[in-house]
Amino acid sequence: MAAAEAERLCLTDLPGELLELILCCDVLGAADIGRVACTCRRLREACQPRGKVWRERFRLRWPSLLKYYSHTDSVSWLEEYKARHSAGLEAQRIVASFSKRFFSEHVPCDGFSDIETLGCPSHFFEDELMCILNMEGR
Length: 138
Known about the structure:
F-box-like_dom_sf; F-box_dom; F-box domain-containing protein
């Protein structure tokens, strides 16, 4: 009887803490977590925007940024993840345009003006610049 019961157990039958631990696994990406959260109410609750799963996803992707947050802050880690990701894409777009704008005869003095319109914390952009500078092959 016990073997038959074990065969019927699903992921959603696990205790919340164990479910969070599994979802915090570093092999899962943000897209994976988003897909898991769309499957059912139990998994959506495990992947709460302010919960451990999105905090861990943020920490794994951008560990140097956690110093800007207090443990007592009520942070929507999903929104922070989205904002940092968007800032990174915009920073990459701006840096990619430098070769066209800055290596010509006319160098515009407003080359970094796009940064001010990002609408996110400046440390997100600084972090992305550091990632770009530290990339191999750059």
